[in-house]
Specification:
Radius of gyration: 26 Å
CATH superfamily of one domain: glycosyl hydrolase (family 31)
Distance between the termini: 108 Å
CATH topology of one domain: Immunoglobulin-like
Strand content: 25-35%
Shape: globular
Number of strands: 44
CATH architecture of one domain: Sandwich
Length: about 725
């Protein structure tokens, strides 16, 4: 007799493609519309006339990401109508067509030009992974994505957003320390931006291994992106900065030269360093104390032997006009009797396993627990702990290792974060950890140094990090290729709403040659963050360490930086309002010029709107420079050139190819030893004749306090109108 077989369970793969599918019903809302299919719900919201938010989820409610977006929807007039199988939403700047048969979005300008469109695969899921597939338009270019290596035009490559400690990274390696999932698409002399507001590990593929589409996805969470359209790339960046917040006005001293090394110790070496700067009449503002200032690398300590009287040391440095910035690592040594550890453990402020045990990993001090900066209580505690440094006279903070990094470089994904009371795993919270550390550090600086503008420098970050800190591009290498790659990284950060950024001048890992250091110094003088840094057990890497010729070249460019501080400071003020970069890729002002995207010219950028900088390797004595449309002057002898052409420019080691746009107005001051030193009281206005006029908004305040927010500042509009 044959027994009937037992029924078996049907296996449904969770990794099959699942699209939104046909929309069953939709409803108009006060700021857009919502729609539902059999498996998903969709929300389309008008944030501004040129900003549309698209959300899709398979859950009962949409995710809330509390970290990046600061803009609230405005009451914007829009029209919504149903046409056959689609909904048409129109504002005064953009039109969205939503296909009811498959949830496909198409975006047009008001002249009917197709800006961006979902591929027919649309928004879909593979298990928990959510993806939006996009058609690629003819000759479309992609720029931005923050701290990403490679070419200015991202087409043909894929990038991962997953904050990673990457010592000595290669010039095409990815991912690095910070993640900013925002890019700008360019085609047909039009532009749009897309910001993907999802903190999970995400991928942006602009045609790598496929000729059909581009796409962006995240390993979990909702599809939640903002589509931005404005007439220009600059306005798109400003709109993105409106969404995620703008840089706060930094103290003026943070714009001067900053000297760092891993590490300067003991205190006598730090004092000798400061004396050498002043004796050699090399201007500088900041000296950093790296991890060797601590007792056994423990944060909130000073080494009692190497730095026996830190308050006196810092006081003596301030007498010479120096500010001190200290490094802050998040790892708290799990040592009995060590107060920060005992406090954090007692208050439950550290990252935890799901069973409630503290997560512990090894980093500089040994086995460490890690403050949960997504917990408001932890941030408040950290803010209060910073009084240890501010009472000693410290003015700025350098948040490092905050990806978070640990030996082994593989944090278990089940680690849990408070995530503002909602609890999230490492998968969701890693990318915003460093930004929240920077936030609590900035707020702690303000708490403990009332009416003093904070300066925080961070390695890790996410979209919105510009609200809390400047960003530097991590552990680079002393090579010609890295020097130029650093320029592209800073330019890309500028395209992504981060105006205040820089690289380790001279290279952190390895040792710069004399010529490389000299050239790097000249380029870095035209970087928003002007900081040198070098690694332990390497040769000295101060401006005078490479011989008399390099010292003189360095002094010349460092003095020039300080001469230009009135212009640079005024531009920082402007950037704090607009979100636009100081170091601006030519893709912002000349986005329709194909030559600027070629490898030969993609490193060129505008600094403070007026300077055209053409970075070049130190071993080259002549360089092909592309001058965009307009007229230009070679900065060092005022030789005039017509734009729209490629020229050959001599570039001996002492002369970086720098040009000034015709019609520009520059403000300069006399030589000073540091940003707080008295100048001669004369503001030197340089006007470069041109066929088109310009305006320069000169700005001054005390450079330190928040009094400018109460109207205590000087501002003057200086305009140039050429004679016809």
């Amino acid at each position: 007799m044959i027994q009937n077989p037992q029924p078996t369970l049907q296996h449904q793969s969770s990794s099959r493609y699942v699209p939104i599918g046909k929309i069953d019903k939709w409803t108009r809302t006060s700021d857009g519309f919502s729609a539902k299919s059999e498996i998903a719900q969709v929300q389309i919201t008008v944030i501004r006339a040129g900003i549309i938010r698209i959300q899709a989820t398979r859950n009962d409610s949409f995710d809330v990401n509390p970290y990046s977006i600061v803009a609230q929807p405005q009451e914007i007039d829009f029209f919504l109508e149903e046409q056959e199988d689609s909904l048409i939403l129109t504002t005064s700047q953009v039109q969205v067509q939503f296909d009811l048969q498959g949830g496909i979005c198409s975006f047009f300008d008001l002249n009917g030009f197709l800006l961006n469109k979902d591929d027919s695969l649309g928004i879909s899921w593979l298990g928990t992974e959510v993806t939006c597939y996009k058609e690629v338009q003819a000759n479309e270019k992609f720029i931005g994505l923050g701290e990403k290596t490679g070419n200015l035009n991202r087409a043909g490559r894929a990038y991962t957003n997953w904050n990673t400690d990457y010592f000595g990274y290669g010039i095409n390696d990815d991912p690095l320390y910070a993640s900013i999932p925002f890019y700008i698409g360019l085609h047909g002399e039009k532009a749009y931006g897309i910001y993907f507001d999802n903190t999970h590990k995400s991928v942006f593929n602009f045609g790598a291994s496929t000729d059909r589409f581009s796409y962006f996805n995240a390993e979990d969470g909702d599809m939640d992106y903002y589509f931005i359209h404005e007439p220009t790339v600059a306005e798109i960046i400003s709109s993105y900065a409106t969404l995620t917040g703008k840089m706060k006005m930094p103290p003026k001293w943070a714009l001067g030269y900053q000297q760092c090394r891993y590490s300067y110790y003991p205190d006598s070496e730090v004092l000798a360093l400061s004396t050498t700067f002043r004796d050699k009449k090399i201007p500088a503002d900041v000296i950093y104390l790296d991890i060797h200032h601590m007792e056994q690398y423990k944060v909130f300590t000073f080494d009692g032997e190497k730095f026996s009287d830190p308050k006196n040391l810092i006081s003596r440095l301030k007498e010479k006009g120096f500010r001190v910035v200290v490094i802050l690592d998040p790892g708290i040594k799990t040592e009995a009797g060590y107060l920060p550890y005992e406090e954090g453990k007692a208050k439950g402020l550290f990252l935890k396993y799901p069973d409630g045990k503290d997560y512990v990993a090894q980093v500089w001090p040994g086995w460490c627990a890690f403050p949960d900066f997504t917990n408001p209580d932890t941030r408040s505690w950290w803010m209060e702990k910073l009084v240890f440094y501010t009472e000693a006279g410290v003015d700025g903070f350098w948040t490092d290792m905050n990806e978070p990094a640990s030996w082994g470089q593989f944090t278990p994904n089940l680690i849990e974060f408070d995530y503002e009371g909602t609890t999230a795993s490492h998968r969701k919270a890693r990318n915003i950890y460093g930004m929240q550390m920077a936030k609590s550090t900035q707020e702690g600086s303000v708490l403990n140094l009332p009416n003093q503008r904070p300066f925080v420098l961070t390695r890790a970050g996410f979209a919105g990090v510009q609200r809390f800190a400047a960003v530097w591009t991590g552990d680079n290498v002393s090579t010609e290729e890295h020097m130029l790659a650093g320029v592209r990284l800073v330019n890309s950060l500028g395209l992504s709403g981060v105006p205040f950024s820089g690289y380790d001048l001279g290279g952190f890992a390895g040792e710069a040659t004399k010529s490389l250091y000299a050239r790097w110094m000249s380029i870095a003088a035209f970087s928003p963050l002007f900081r040198a840094h070098s690694m332990i057990n390497s040769n000295d890497a101060e401006p005078w360490a490479f011989g008399e010729e390099v010292e003189e070249i360095s002094r010349t460019y460092m003095k020039l930086r300080y001469n230009l501080l009135p212009t640079i400071y005024s531009k920082f003020r402007q950037s704090s309002h607009t979100g636009l970069p100081l170091a601006a890729s030519l893709a912002i002002a000349y986005s329709n010029d194909p030559l600027i995207f070629t490898p030969a010219f993609q490193n060129q950028y505008l600094f403070c709107d007026s300077f055209l900088i053409a970075p070049v390797e130190s071993f080259k004595e002549i360089l092909k420079v592309y001058l965009p449309v307009g007229d230009w002057y070679y900065f060092f002898n005022d030789q005039a050139h017509s734009g729209g052409q490629v020229i050959y420019q001599d570039c001996p080691l002492n002369n970086l190819p720098v040009f000034v746009k015709a019609g520009s107005i520059l403000a300069l001051q006399s030589d000073v030893a540091h940003s707080s030193a008295k100048h001669d009281g004369i503001l030197r206005i340089h006007v470069y004749a041109g066929s088109e006029g310009s305006e320069y908004l000169h700005y001054e305040d005390d450079g330190v306090s928040f009094d400018f927010e109460s109207g205590v500042y000087h501002e003057r509009l200086i305009s140039y109108s050429p004679m016809n």
